[in-house]
Design brief:
There is one protein chain. The protein is α+β, with helices and mostly antiparallel strands. The chain contains 16 helices and eleven strands. A six-stranded mixed sheet has the order 1-2-6-3-5-4. A five-stranded mixed sheet has the order 7-11-8-10-9, with helices on both faces.
């Protein structure tokens, strides 16, 4: 999913069979291109990759509107809903529901990002009817019992208290809060210590009723199931949801704070740096060139310019990175690192200098060729399990890239010229950065734009 990681509650996998569901089916992009567009008798659409060699089924789905649909004074609502959908549903309380999940060797998960509400199920083919029935009641008849709400709330609050002293969390939340002060993106998706106590079962029911509907739903299925069987399954699982979602309109957002640096004093051994600026929306024609440029700059792990300059040459940090974050309502370029206190200023100076150099000179032809080769070759790793394939198919739907995107993707990368890369590099660098620093960095102080 895109956006900030949430405070989520993960249950341990309870059987070998569940682990097997997530680990099987080895396909390549070429195999995975046999995507069938299925429309159920009730009009629910899904993309299917049939793989009959192993008797397992993976389904991923998403509803448009995640934490951005939280009430303004109650951030964390979507995250609580995600944490509670399998805490009892229909006539089963939490214990009965979880026992049934374990008996069926099924895995059901929910989560919420800033822009999407996600779900998934992994199941054995010979147990598909009772497994899909569990998913159906979790989606259509969650209980939101007071006892479960209070237990989950306490677990999330405990996590938020730990985060309140974690420099990485402090830096990230400060960055988002400052960059989007009057937008849902500025609110922490996992909630706050102030907002969590305000969220009541009726808020959870209202969110569930407004946001989980058939018209804002995308579904991807991979495994041993054919189109004839899948159609009725889609109607059985999702047909009981409302026909139309009642989403609040979210405005496009321009980040603020470019040129600003905020330093928060915290007595920790290392300084955490979070930086970011304007990026590109996923539908922007320059997104693929920007994706390649960022790989060269900071997305290529051990091969990136930032890694080479910050770690290899100077030993200032264990890792440093940058990435594109194409949100639904804003495109961002972000990154971060953590370093010793006396190296924070030099690390930030090097990062900013490398971004400026990329903007002024662009990548070399050799860098571009190597990046394109790597990005094309490594794409197969996104299709080496059924779970990964389902996740890829869902992402392609959510980002509206087209059912033939897997076939077109490497050609889009090949088409990027050095002139394209240089032009887009200037576009990324010219946007400027907003930086947050948490720790006791020597020689770094807060500053306003132009300061």
């Amino acid at each position: 999913p895109r956006g900030q990681a949430l405070v989520t509650i993960h249950r341990p996998l309870m059987s070998f069979a569940i682990a097997a569901v997530a680990a099987v089916v080895s396909l390549t992009p070429a195999n995975a291109t046999n995507i069938e567009r299925i429309v159920s008798p009730g009009g629910i659409e899904a993309w299917l990759v049939r793989e009959p060699s192993i008797p397992l089924i993976a389904m991923n789905f998403a509803f448009k509107g995640g934490a951005n649909q939280d009430p303004a004074l109650k951030p964390g609502t979507a995250n609580m809903v995600a944490s509670l959908l399998d805490e009892g549903a229909g006539d089963m309380d939490t214990t009965a529901f979880q026992q049934r999940v374990e008996e069926l060797a099924t895995e059901i998960r929910f989560s919420a990002s800033r822009d999407q509400f996600y779900g998934s199920i992994r199941l054995l083919k010979d147990r598909q009817q009772p497994s899909f029935d569990l998913l159906r009641i979790a989606l259509t008849a969650p209980r939101f019992e007071a006892s479960a709400v209070e237990r989950v709330r306490a677990q999330i609050v405990s996590g938020l208290r730990r985060e309140s002293t974690n420099p990485n969390n402090i830096s990230s939340k400060l960055w988002w809060r400052t960059a989007f002060p009057n937008h849902p993106y500025g609110r922490p998706s996992g909630g706050t210590l102030e907002s969590l106590p305000l969220i009541q079962p009726e808020d959870l029911r209202a969110y569930h009723q407004r946001n989980l509907a058939r018209d804002n739903l995308k579904i991807a299925v991979v495994g041993d199931i054919d189109a004839t069987t899948l159609g009725p399954v889609l109607d059985r699982v999702f047909g009981g949801l409302p026909a139309k979602a009642q989403l609040e309109q979210i405005p496009q957002a321009m980040m603020t704070g470019v040129g600003r640096r905020i330093v928060i004093d915290l007595d920790v051994p290392q300084a955490v740096l979070t930086y970011g600026g304007s990026g590109l929306l996923r539908k922007d024609p320059d997104f693929i060139p920007a994706y390649i440029v960022n790989h060269i700059l900071g997305g290529g792990s051990f091969s990136s310019r930032l890694y080479n300059e910050v770690r290899e040459k100077r030993g200032l940090a264990y890792g440093v990175y940058s990435y594109l974050a194409p949100m639904e309502y804003s495109g961002l370029f972000q990154g971060g690192t953590q370093t010793r206190a006396d190296g924070a200023k030099e690390a930030l100076d090097v990062i900013e200098a490398e971004i400026r150099r990329m903007g002024s000179d662009g990548p070399s032809q050799e860098e571009l060729d190597k990046a394109k080769s790597y990005l094309k070759g490594s794409y197969a790793l996104s299709f080496d399990t059924s779970a990964k394939i389902a996740a890829q198919l869902l992402t392609i739907q959510v980002e509206d890239l087209g059912i033939d995107y897997i076939n077109r993707r490497n050609g889009l990368i090949d088409a990027v010229t050095l002139a394209d890369a240089k032009r887009v590099a200037r576009r990324l660098a010219d946007g400027g950065l907003f930086v947050t620093v948490v720790g006791k960095p020597k020689g770094l102080a807060s500053k306003e734009p132009g300061g």
